[in-house]
Fold TBC1 domain family member 8.
Amino acid sequence: MKAQLSTSRPLCLHRPSGAEAEEADFQQQLKQMLEEEEEKEAEPLPPMTQPQFIQLCKTLCVMIHGDAQEAALLQAVATVTSLVLQIGEAGHRGPAPEVAGPRGPRGSEVAEDEWTVGFAQILASLLTEPALVNFLEKPLDLGAVVTAAREKQYHQRAGLLTLQTR
C-alpha cells in the first residue's frame, strides 16, 4: 500500500512532537480558514435592481418609524433615495457596459439595459447623510424590529383585505 501525500497542508519536515505539533497544526488550519473567509468576503455584491432598491428604502423607513429623529431620518432617506435613483437613471440611459453576462440578484442574468446600482453607489450615497450614518451605527435589536415590521405588514394587509371585501 502506497502512502499518499496531502496537498491541502504543507509538507513539514522536523515537526515538533506531541501537543506542540497539534497546536501548530491547529494554528495553521485556523490561519488557512481565515484567509479563505477573507477571500469569500472580497467577492463583489451583485447589482441591485430598481424594485429591490425601492424595497430597501421601504425597509429603512419601517426601521426609522418611531425613532426620536424620525423626521430628519425620513428626509435623509428621501435625499439618498433621490440621489441613487438619479445615479441609476444615468447609468440606465448611458452606454451599456461591454461585460459579458453581468450577474444579477439570485444568480439571474441582468439585462444590459436594466436599471441597476452597485453597493458602492448606495453606500456612498448613504454616507452623505450624517443622520442616517448615526442611526445605522447605533446598536439595534433586529429581532424586535423584524417582529414589529411583520406585525405592521400583517395589519396593513388585513386592512386592505377588509377594504376589498366591502
